[in-house]
Structure formats: structure tokens, C-alpha cells
Amino acid sequence: xxxxxxxxxxxxxxxxxxxxxxxxxxxxxxxxxxxxxxxxxxxxxxxxxxxxxxxxxxxxxxxxxxxxxxxxxxxxxxxxxxxxxxxxxxxxxxxxxxxxxxxxxxxxxxxxxxxxxxxxxxxxxxxxxxxxxxxxxxxxxxxxxxxxxxxxxxxxxxxxxxxxxxxxxxxxxxxxxxxxxxxxxxxxxxxxxxxxxxxxxxxxxxxxxxxxxxxxxxxxxxxxxxxxxxxxxxxxxxxxxxxxxxxxxxxxxxxxxxxxxxxxxxxxxxxxxxxxxxxxxxxxxxxxxxxxxxxxxxxxxxxxxxxxxxxxxxxxxxxxxxxxxxxxxxxxxxxxxxxxxxxxxxxxxxxxxxxxxxxxxxxxxxxxxxxxxxxxxxxxxxxxxxxxxxxxxxxxxxxxxxxxxxxxxxxxxxxxxx
Length: 418
Known about the structure:
Blueprint: E1 4-9, H1 12-23, E2 35-41, E3 47-54, E4 57-62, H2 82-88, E5 94-100, H3 106-117, E6 125-133, H4 144-161, E7 165-173, H5 182-189, E8 193-196, H6 203-210, H7 212-223, H8 226-236, E9 242-247, H9 254-267, E10 272-276, H10 277-283, H11 292-311, E11 315-319, H12 325-336, E12 340-346, H13 350-355, H14 361-366, E13 388-390, H15 397-410, E14 416-417
Parallel strand pairs: 1-2, 5-6, 5-8, 6-7, 9-11, 9-12, 10-11, 12-13, 13-14
Antiparallel strand pairs: 2-3, 3-4
Helix pairs in contact: 7-8, 9-15, 11-12
């Protein structure tokens, strides 16, 4: 069998992984079985790197620099490879790594200062301060730029106080579930010691950091009457984005529920965007037909726009028929890169949907004048992974909205039927 090659477009988290590999602080991407080479691209299909397999060894070759953002977290002076930094460090020095995973506290800096000045550390010494940064910031979290700015000020002070110790600042891309291990960082920089700064915080300081949000609410309760305190709390609480995808047959009631849901969200002060079938078809998917391929393209386009809305803290409510599991899975993947995803199956029976047929579409489909009509001449793949299943013959629109909001606010849950 001849060797095969392929191309893989990477999302944000995967781009972080690729950059870690290129910086020498993470493993090279694994190649699928039977594939001898992979070209990795960004979402604009720009080739960034090529991984090639030779026997059991995978070699990663950069093709062009990864796109950089602006701000201190993207400063080339701190986004350098481990091999480049090792080449500049004094030979024979004791090497230490201090890892910054959250906004440095006074306790963090005290721990780092003790490490630098410890009598157990042979001189000269070198501390590589690694700031773990992400391409995206969850609502309410400190941005990568903010984390680097705060750490840079701390490092400047440490450099003044250090005696025979170099302090080097680097930024390493990270994302939830893909943080480099302490051993990986130690190996990358040739360190004898790795210190995870937030693990070294005094107990009282850890508790104080965790209680900041609670103390904010307690102070609001002391200053304001209950209704005012609740409004202030809502205004100060970072809103996390979400994509709510309602899927179901034509006439199932998903558009009615979606409109009511958006109205409720807007009444509660949330930024909500409705992506309904007809409007999307007219503006976003003009020119597409109703073949399986075109329907899946339509749903993927909806998913892309919905994910952009959610990325910036908004709530996108989409109500296409979305008859195929593959395109629904694509929407889930796009949404979960940035926000919460909730799949709602509006499972109103076909006979009821047909009886509600205000546009006469089912009658035309039965007569054969509309080909590829979902539920009649084209299949509807019933979701097996819905977070909520609603039958509008049993649940009112108001109750449906209440149940959707309950799932959104409660977080991941097992499928619920109503």
C-alpha cells in the first residue's frame, strides 16, 4: 500500500497544540494510522506545518509562522522556542521553572522569591517563568494579555532583587485539558525544579481568592435592598455565551419556541440572536437547494454564525430542521470551542406537524411536487444526544421556554423528555 497524505484544518485549541509542539514544549501531533504525512492549516487553509512519519518517528516541519495577535501575550520576545532559550542560558547554572496559571498573588511572588534566594539552590541560578496563555478568554477570566502584563511587572521586580539569578519570561499556549505537564516543562527547559505558583499559595490566601465573588455579593446585599442587589449581581456576573439548537420536523413548533425564547432572554437583559430557517435561507444560504449536501451546508453555516455570537458572550438560538446527525455534530463542535451548546429536539409527531401545515408543504410533498421533503421523501435522523426532548402536544410554548432555560442554566445534564 502506498503512503498517504492528508490536510487537517485546525481550530483554536489545536493551533495552541501545534504551537507548543513547534516551541518544543509539547508532543508532535499523532498521525492517523495509514497516513504518512499531514499538512496542518488554519481555518483559512494556510499551510502552517507538515508532520511526516519515518518508521516510528514523527518529524514536525514548520512551513510558515503562525498568525500572531496583538498585545503583550504575542510579543515575539516571550514566544520563543525552548531550544532557543536553552541556547542563551548560562551553562552550569541551576535551572528552575516557575509556572503561572492564574493572576499572580502576593503569596505567589513570595514563593517565587523564596525559590530564587533559597540556600539549597546552587549559584548561579536561572528561573524560567512560564505564563500559560490561551487564544480565548472565558467570560470573567483574566485575559492572556492581562496575565502577561501582571507577570511581567512581577518579573521586573524579581530581577532587581535576584542575586546571581537570571529570570526569563516566556509565554506558552495552553487551553483547558491541554496544559503542559510539569515534567514536560522541566524537560523542555532542562530544569531541576518546577514550581506551580498557585499551588504554593498560603491556605488563607487560596480561600480569600475563592471567596472574592461571594464577598462581592455579600457587600452588595449589605448596601442594597434585595431587588437592587439581584440586579447588580446580574450586571457584574460575566455572561457566558451559548448556542441553543432546536431541531425538528417542519411544523413541529421549533420556530415558535425559538422566538419566544429569544424574547424571554431579551427581557432578562441577555444579548440573544435568532437564526431561523427562512431568514437564514434568504440571507446566509441564498442559492442553496434542498439536497442532502446543501441542507448540511446550510446547517453548518448557521453553526458558524451561532458560534461567533456565542464566542462574544451572546446567546444564539437556531431553529433549522437540521435533519442529519453529522451537521448537528458539526454545530456542536463549533459551539463548544467557545461556549455552551444545548441541543433541543422538538419531537412533535409527524401527524401533528402535517395537521398544522399552514403553508401546504406536506400536501405538496405527498403529491410529489416537492422532492426531498423531510419526514416524507427525505429522512429525519432522530437525535440520540439531545439535552432536551419536547413534544409540543404535551408542553406549552411558555413551559418549553422555561425548560430550555433550566437546562442552559443548570449546565450539562442527561437527556430530559417532556
